[in-house]
């Protein structure tokens, strides 16, 4: 996934600066992150449900695809710019959009399914508190599903300017892009994403991701009241392995 950054300060996103505070860059998000196996996976989980919550919904590409007759769909995201874009897309009126983080999740106890795509949970610093809030929204037997990068793959080692440099023409003009690793400690990875615009301005966005092991994720889920925690190594039920790029998690309340 490309990391795009705005030319000006932006709101906060799960405790870090929101990289999508510029509307020109927001509209590139879906182009860089199109629907794929991940969206198909979450849509399959939503079959037969009456109420679905998309936590960290972003532009709402997945969220809007979850809409179905008789189903209530809620999208939550802390980026006002992302939500502003989402609200203007076809089918957006069928979704309830809410700005905020885990603190705006209502403990209704009637949600059938919570999904969190695009490695959203890796942006969350308060992981245990967030999992508790999402658990409170779910009914007994409801499910929470998300994915996270596998820390065993050490993806951050490839986040160098040499490995990530690229140029392309976009609606924001010609961009030169690359990543630079800043710090890693106890699973917390800090890196800078650079975007050099045509006028020579280099917009730098400092990103923070939290790499958690399957055991750490499972522990937080069980402490929040989830049972039957399943961690796969891919979108098709592959067993997790050291070389699995992703950890795909499902948990039942």
UniProtKB/TrEMBL annotation:
Keywords from the named record: Methyltransferase, Transferase
Q: Which positions fall inside the Methyltransferase domain? A: 52-142
Q: Does the keyword Methyltransferase apply?
A: yes
What are the BP-aspect GO terms?
Answer: methylation
| A Pfam family annotated for this UniProt entry | Methyltransf_25
Methyltransferase in keyword set: yes
Gene3D superfamilies linked to this entry? Vaccinia Virus protein VP39
InterPro entries named among the record's database cross-references: Methyltransf_25, SAM-dependent_MTases_sf
- GO molecular-function term, one example from the UniProt record: methyltransferase activity
Under PANTHER family, the record lists: TRANS-ACONITATE 2-METHYLTRANSFERASE, TRANS-ACONITATE 2-METHYLTRANSFERASE-RELATED
Protein name, per record = Class I SAM-dependent methyltransferase
